[in-house]
Amino acid sequence: MERPADAGSAVTRLPSPDMFASQLAADDDPTARTQEQPMPATDSLELDEARLGEFVHRFITDLGAAHHAVTVVVGDRLGLYRALAGTGPATAAEVADAARCDERYTTEWLNAQAASGYCEFDPATGRYHLTPEQIACLADENSPVFLTAGMLLAASLFKDEERLTEAIRSGAGVGWGEHHHDLYVGVERFFRAGYAANLVSSWVPALDGVEEKLRAGALVADVGCGHGASTILLAQAYPNSTIVGFDNHAPSIDAARAAARTAGVADRARFEVASAQDFPGEEYALVCVFDALHDMGDPVGAARHIRASIAGDGTWLLVEPMAGDSVAANLNPIGRLFYSASTLVCTPAARSQPGGWALGAQATDAQLRGVAERGGFTRFRRAVDTPVNRIIEIRP
Ligand SMILES: C[S@@+](CC[C@H](N)C(=O)[O-])C[C@H]1O[C@@H](n2cnc3c(N)ncnc32)[C@H](O)[C@@H]1O
């Protein structure tokens, strides 16, 4: 099995069996677990009042956002945002009626939205409403900026918190399939908006010669396809092509097949349970990997297999989260989101697989290029960017 010896500091190794053994020994001794690092007590520190106030303010804002996140998930599930979008300026009773929810709870929910800037409240009339921008982000699942499902993704991680805490302590992996079901649904609904807005209109046209091939009819693989949002969009846009989605998470493949049937593209969007390192087929004109390479324990094995499966003039479309070339460059709201998701989903997923890699969701271009080159590819180009994604063209 290949070991990633020289791929940079973001590449980590799985702990050796010896490391697990010493960890197990520590587990047998409760005092070993509770031993704490010495740290200075607060009353021995010189606190800057202004900086303390700023940090407390920041934390309270985040604490409010964390609590509010659950109300977003609840509002999404109950159709409260859609009801409010439909009613226009409305009293709490009218919104509750439209959503068929309890009035008292709905009043409290609306006040939580208003305090968070997620709806508007007019004290003169006692009515609540959504602005057009709030409707686009919160209520309209087909909008290119539909964001609500992102909170479902975040909330799912609270449901996995105990297992993740243990994994971070021990170094063990948590496989994609070991998470709460809401993660899979949240990822599909959250990512689909970006794919619908960009994949066919911008990303495919940015690849050299690919759009023409897909229009004429070509064989495409979508590796790590999850619930198949990207696979289905490609099948809808290029009816002469055959798009095959692969994922090693069987329940996701079941969901993708059902979605393709609902979308009426099951004749040209097929799905199979297979890993990136051994999916079947050859002479693919295009192999896509959307937000999945950094989740793999063996991305080089995936790159090598893609190289072997792709046509001589084929293209590998790699979509990865936006990131800069250093940790310092990622210390911003996008990096915050992706480093957090990477800690709780991507790194544990990679750790659960053989291969010894854990690129993380903020892998640099140089690291991704290194993976592609080890797989046998020679050309690597950032074809286009969005604020949250790098769209990379990789060719033999
Ligand atoms: C973050 S999700 C992205 C799903 C989908 N591409 C999307 O953008 O909505 C990562 C996906 O990669 C899949 N995956 C991870 N490692 C894999 C591997 N070695 N082979 C195949 N699929 C893998 C997971 O099962 C999961 O469905």
Structural summary, described in words:
- With 396 residues, this protein is of the alpha/beta class.
- Among the domains are: 88 residues, Winged helix-like DNA-binding domain superfamily/Winged helix DNA-binding domain (Arc Repressor Mutant, subunit A, Orthogonal Bundle), CATH 1.10.10; 173 residues, Rossmann fold (3-Layer(aba) Sandwich).
- Helices cover 50% and strands 14% of the residues.
- It has 16 helices and 9 strands.
- The strands form 2 sheets. The chain has a 7-stranded mixed sheet. A two-stranded antiparallel sheet has the order 1-2.
- Helix 3 crosses helix 6, helix 8 packs antiparallel against helix 10 and helix 10 packs parallel to helix 12.
- The N terminus is likely disordered.
- S-adenosylmethionine binds next to helix 10 and helix 12.
Which terms would index this structure?
396 residues; alpha/beta; Arc Repressor Mutant, subunit A; Rossmann fold; 7-stranded mixed sheet; two-stranded antiparallel ribbon; 16 helices; globular; disordered N terminus; binds S-adenosylmethionine
CATH class of the domain at 199-327 and 352-395: Alpha Beta
* Distance from first to last alpha carbon: 23 Å
What is the strand tally? 9
List low-pLDDT spans.
1-32
Strand residue percentage:
5-15%
The profile of the biggest β sheet is:
7 strands, mixed
Can you list the ligands bound to this structure?
S-adenosylmethionine
Helix residue percentage: 40-55%
Q: Could you state the CATH homologous superfamily of the domain at 199-327 and 352-395?
A: Vaccinia Virus protein VP39
Protein structure class: alpha/beta
Mean pLDDT, to the nearest integer, reads: 92
The strand order across the widest sheet is 5-4-3-6-7-9-8
Per DSSP, the total helix count is 16
Radius of gyration: 23 Å
What is the 3D shape? globular
Q: Which CATH-level-2 architecture of the domain at 199-327 and 352-395?
A: 3-Layer(aba) Sandwich
CATH overall fold name of the domain at 199-327 and 352-395:
Rossmann fold
